[in-house]
Amino acid sequence: MFKVLCVTTAMLWSAGAYAQQFAVDGTVEDAKTHHALPGATVEMQELKRFAVADEFGRFTLSKVPAGEFTLAVRFLGYIVKQEKVTVPLSGPVSISLEESAQMTDEVVVVATRANDKTPTTFTNVSKQAIQKQNFGQDLPMLLNWTPSVVTTSDAGAGVGYTGIRIRGSDATRINVTVNGIPYNDSESQGSYWVDIPDIASSSQSIQVQRGVGSSTNGAGAFGASINLQTNTRNDAPYASLITSAGSFGTLRNTIQLGSGLLNDHWVVDARVSKIQSDGFIDRASSNLQSYYFSGGYYNKGTMLKAVVFGGKERTYQAWYGVPQSRLNNDVEAMMTTASNEGWNEAQTQNLLTSNSRTFNPYTYKNQVDDYTQNHYQLHFSQRVNEALTANVSLHYTKGKGYYEEYRYNDNFASYGLSPVVIGDSTIASSDLVRRRWLNNDFYGVTYSLNYDKDNWNVILGGAWNRYTGDHYGEIIWAQVATVPTEYRYYFNNADKRDGNVYLKTSYQFSNRLSGYVDLQVRKILYTTSGIENKQNPINVDANFTFFNPKAGLTYALADNQQLYGSYAVANREPVRDDFVDAPNGIVPKHETLNNVEVGYRRTGRNYALNVNYYLMDYHNQLVLTGKVNDVGASLRTNVDRSYRTGVEVEGMLRISQQFSWTANVTLSRNRIRDFNEVLYDYGQNFDQYLEVKRSYKSTDIAFSPNVIVGSGFSYRPFKNLELTWLAKYVGAQYLDNTSNKNRRINDYFVNDLRLTYTIHPSFMREIALSGLLNNFLNEKYQSNGWTWGYLGGGAEYRENYYFPQAGTNFLLMAAFKF
User: Fold this and answer.
1) Distance CA 456, CA 505 (A)
2) Which of 13-27, 233-247, 339-353, 357-371 has the lowest mean pLDDT?
3) Do residues 449 and 423 lie in contact, with contact meaning Cβ atoms separated by under 8 Å?
4) Which of 193, 236, 739, 759 has an alpha carbon 20 to 30 Å from 363's alpha carbon atom?
């Protein structure tokens, strides 16, 4: 009986102890604007327990015993605040933070970012939101849930070569900066996230501006811009180990370390990551490595910070896509595809016997892309006085790599070689392996002078950058032994110099009304010389000077409501291929975009709403028409008038303590007013070569869906568990500019489920266990593609290629934070 009584007493004491544990709930906001501060950290000092404020500024510390405690609340750019609380609370605690006068990392990106007084359209993605979705996939996949965004993956699973379009604009029209430094490739103007894998793990925040946006550095923002800021100062030392694994042999390991603030001035951060995946598409493997290191010195008025990051990628090529005939499992059509492509017996058998959704035409074991890229940045900021801050940044990027290809029965003439005579036989072609190399350097300086006093906020900024690149190709093996190995069959170099200066001015006319003027002048010099890969001489000497003005107004209807409107102009130079492939004597024209943005913003304690109308009117937009040059390369030509117009709605709603919902909708119309398609007619007996033009009125711009919807519905059944249902609908897209339904990507609706469970044991800061079930309804869809066709034998032939995305698949992640 005594034992039973002891056990019963212990159980009752345990239950009582458990019953005396409480939750500490609250919100963190800006003391002046009362806007939520998502990502703010809340530490219960006595218990060494941490919480992070969500997108509404909410935080929860669970299983707290009764008593008095101190909450230390921190957010970058704000004064640390200590708040005494008595548990149990009578209600949620509200904590307001004051802005700090101390120098922070934010000064590095403030010149190129929009804020609440900028009359343009943007979305901020916090570190917390990035970490929730970061299972090791490329950065575009993490931005998939922001408005007007469509993403795609060559390998079908989000690792390797991935792409992003915003309002239908592809990566070559999206300006990307990292800490204010241009990231776009200077010649192609694309951004290759595979070169800096897992950069999301070292990202503090990301701002996506849609439309022209505010002036920035590098290539013109001709549809959108992505402004990424890497890790900012963390005053507390930390360490974390993150590992994730899932379908298609995907595995990612990340180690992060931070010194915290040393001697009140110094901070050091480091990360190493390794990601590998077999890919959904056959042989579409990825082997990715990356690193990040920063060291900073801070005092009240000075910041000096060095940032070094980079990566090495080796990915098996999956950029050709799957022919429609294979997707439809149509044997007769597949035989036509093989004939149109000129494939041999082995290639045809691969087409006929492969899985209909995972077919890859490449079977050579080293059909890979192999590239290394290293970035070096040095940032210096000095507060001259209370109103004036100066910033200057130096940068250098080194890139080198190649892609290797097995070529069947290639003509020697394509490589500048004469036929080989062996005995009585003359051999004019051979199987061979070639590598196409790029060796480039990019360096320069960015700067800004920020003045903020009374009613004025003025930023004078700009950049000067230079890119040099060597392009060359080598034959490393040939079936015919007399072909010289390591033979360099083409070589050309490029030199591009890009300078800009901008003046941004905001003036507060009254408590309600503020005006904004942003004037930018940009100068580009681009030269090339040598022989390009099709054995043609390439000699470009281009010179552009652009004036890009922007102006607008912001009117505060109330403290939490704003109306804004702006008009902006952007000009953009042609990309490398536009010059390389242009017929002799033809110089491609630059493109011009006139952009109108009108919107309404409203925030509350439990909701946020942004509604925006946009008009993007293009002059001389460069598009594919089907026209080819004398060596068969596809040409982009200028179309006189085209436009994109639409409405974007973005909102967040906290329904209750357990339920919250984020959603965005884009409804748009994207048109070319007059479009001429070019087809080539080879005649009834394939003995002629005629150019045939077909004219169209008001056709859809390729890859521009009229409807895009994103949704994230979160449920917290209890404090440490969050379930989120992520849904994405993308309307139909056309593969070319003819609005032909036989050449389109069908609409798709994809649903993911994300689960996160966090605990805060006494021996470490946090353990987070997460799962991501992608496409749990197993939607069979394609997110990208391309098309080509011709006339011949009295018929019209079309070949459509698509990039299928994976069906139901999963990723699991464990994060250990110390």
Assistant:
1) 7
2) 13-27
3) no
4) 193
Q: How far apart are the first and last CA of the chain?
A: 46
Instruction: Answer yes or no: is 74 within a domain.
Output: yes
Q: Give the chain's length.
A: 818
- For residues 125 and 143, is the Cβ–Cβ distance under 8 A? yes
Q: How many Cα atoms within 13 Å fall on the side-chain side of residue 404?
A: 16
Helix (H) or strand (E) holding 486: none
CB atoms within 10 A of CB 585: 5
Determine contact, residues 717/756, Cβ cutoff 8 Å: no
Angle at 459 between CA 102 and CA 35, to 5 degrees: 55
Of 542 and 481, more confident: 542
List, in order, residues 6 or more apart from 424 with CB less than 8 Å away.
none
| Token pair in block for residue 720 | 């440490």
More confident residue, 624 or 318: 318
Across 278-419, the runs of DSSP E, i.e. the strands, are: 286-298, 302-316, 322-323, 368-383, 388-411
pLDDT at 19 over 90: no
Helices (H) and strands (E) counted in the chain, each on its own, are 7, 44
- Rounded Cα–Cα distance for residues 724 and 752 (Å): 8
State the Cα–Cα distance between residues 101 and 409, nearest whole angstrom: 68
pLDDT at residue number 50: 79
Examine the fold and report which residue of 42, 72, 97 is the final residue of a domain before the chain moves on: 97
> Considering only CA atoms, which of 517, 541, 518, 519 is closest in space to residue 529?
541
Each residue of 158-181: pLDDT tens digit?
999 999 999 999 999 999 999 999
Count of CB atoms within 10 A of residue 86's CB? Answer: 10
Instruction: Flag whether 92 is in a domain.
Output: yes
Question: What pLDDT does 5 receive?
Answer: 38
Residue 737 to residues 173, 397, 674, 740: CA-CA distances in angstroms?
Answer: 18, 36, 10, 8
Whole-number mean pLDDT of the chain? 92
Residue with tokens 């995305």: 805
* CATH code for the domain in which residue 92 is found: 2.60.40.1120
Residue 631 pLDDT grade (very low, low, confident, very high; cuts 50, 70, 90): low
Provide the pairing of β-strand 513-531 with 540-558: antiparallel
pLDDT digits (tens, 9 = 90+) for 219-244: 878 889 999 999 998 888 999 999 99
The single residue listed with the structure tokens 């405690």 is: 69
Token representation of residue 690: 């005629």
Encode pLDDT of 490-526 as tens digits: 999 999 999 999 999 999 999 999 999 999 999 999 9
CA angle 773, 776, 777 (to 5 degrees): 170
Helix axes 345-353, 331-341, angle to 10 degrees: 150
CA distance 802 to 780: 12
Work out the number of other CB atoms within 10 angstroms of the CB of residue 336. Answer: 15
Total domains in the chain come to: 2
Is residue 357 classed as helix, strand or coil in its secondary structure? coil
In a domain? residue 467: yes
